[in-house]
Every structure is written in C-alpha cells, then in structure tokens.
Amino acid sequence: MKKQLHLKKLQLIPIALPLCLLCTRNIEASVLMFETFETEGLGTRFLATNSFSDGADDYFIRTDGNAGATGIPEYTHYGDTWYWAAEDIDSTDNPSGEAILDFANIDLTGFDSFTISIDIGAGSIVTFDSVDDFVFVQYRIDAGSWQTALAFQNDGQTFNSNMRQDLNFDGIGEGTMLGFAMQTFTSAAFPITGSLLDVRIDTVVNGGGEAVAFDNIQVVGVPEPAAMALVFGLVAGLFTFKRFLPQREIESRA
First-to-last CA distance in the chain? Predict the structure, then answer.
C-alpha cells in the first residue's frame, strides 16, 4: 500500500515541476517600459514639453544625428539609429525654457520594486555650468510627488566644466563623467507603494554647446524576493522527494 502511494506521488512530479517553473517565469524581473525612439512615439508612448528646434543649435528632439537640426554632436553607443537630443533649450523657440519627456501609467501590478535605467551622453566636457545645467530622471507613483531616481550635473565648478552623475543628489556631479559615448546608468531599486508609475526626463541645458542625448529608457519590475524563494524551495523539495523515493519503496517491501 505504501509503495502504491509513493508511485502516485512520483507520478505528480512531471505535473508539479512544470507548474513550479511556470510560476518562476511569472515572477521573474520583467521589462515594464522600454523606449528606444526607433519609431515616432511622441503623443502615443510619451509626451514632450516642449519638442522644438530652430534648425541649428537649439533643440529638444528625436533625431538620428542629422534629422531636425544641424551641428548635433557625433554621439556613439546609442541604440540602432534614433535617440533623443537637447541643446540650449531656453531659446526664443522655447519661451518656457522647459524640456521634459513624460512616460505615463506604467503598470506595476505584481511586482515588489522597480529600477529605471537610461543611456546618456554629453556633447562636450567643457561647457556645463553648476547653476542651470542638469538632467534628472524622476518618477512618481499614483500621481504622488516627484522623486529623483538618477541625476546628472556638473562637477561643482561655476562655469564651463563636465557633466557627471550626481550620486548623492547634492547638486554636484562626482560620479562617472558623460561624453560622446552614451553610457548606461541604472537607479537603485525603489519599493512599489501603488499601481501606476510615471517617469519623466527633465532636461535643462541653457547655453550654446551645452548638449546632451539619451536613449534606451527602461523600467524593470523586480519580483518580491520571498515569492521567488518559495517557488525555488518547492522545486528543490520535489527533487529531494524524488531522490529518496527508491529507499522508501525498499523499506515498504520489508
């Protein structure tokens, strides 16, 4: 009788194991938003305040390095062809002086935390000022207050210096320096306290030659660690049961 019971349990393994693996897939880290700018998404996948160009050195646009304006720096290490670029955004063609990209209503359901990443570069290492040049990657949950996930500012000199990652959000860039080759930066993992996430890229570069560009903006949902541990524990338990099953069958015959 014991032998028949063990055999029935063994027959359940081919069913239970795929179910556990399926659950594992469902709680893996997942890309919740990924913007490459390879197709025109303005007004559908994201909004811009304000997309403009004077055709030369003042712009906030989607570009391939040639479209929309002349004199765009020769950035490298971005995605396939297109990216977003900004230079001297407080021109007469942009009276408000604002240049913001907004990505709204990203569904956070089923995740415990999230990260934001961006590929970003700078068109110069000698032009950025401490007072009025920055790029902030910010987020809010369920239309709450905006929080800064990533920040890029100059190294603290008043005028004409490089732009770096501001690691501690104190207004001074002390981290990795930005250059023509875009680099990937990823935020810390932030806890999820609601259901809908908004992300924005707030850009201020107020002088000629002060140029930045970014691409591959990504939000990744991270599952709850406890849930992952539970599933892997179930899988490990099934294998352990299968390993010791033959010995139990022998004991049942005795």
Answer: 12
Question: Residue 13 in 3-state DSSP?
Answer: helix
Residue 11 makes CB contacts below 8 A (sequence gap 6+) with none
Regarding beta strands 211-222 and 30-35, do their DSSP bridges make them parallel or antiparallel, or are they unpaired? antiparallel
Angle between the 225-253 and 2-26 helix axes, to the nearest 10 degrees? 160
- The b-or-e profile of 91-109 (16+ CB within 10 A means b, else e) is beebeeeebbbebeebebe
Based on C-alpha coordinates, what's the Rg of the chain? 25
Is 32 strand, coil or helix? strand
Torsion angle, alpha carbons of 125, 127, 133, 138, to 10: -20
Ordered mean pLDDT values, 10 residues apiece, the chain (254 residues): 48 48 59 98 96 95 96 95 96 90 97 98 94 95 98 95 97 97 98 97 93 98 67 52 48 48
26: CB partners within 8 A, 6+ apart: 110
Distance CA 78, CA 181 (A): 8
- Domain borders along the chain are 28-223
pTM of the model: 0.79
Please say whether the structural domain 28-223 has been given the CATH code 2.60.120.260. Answer: yes
Secondary structure (3-state) at 68:
coil
Secondary element (H or E) of residue 177: none
Q: What is the DSSP string of 36-54?
A: --SS--BTTTBEEE--EE-
pLDDT of residue 10: 45
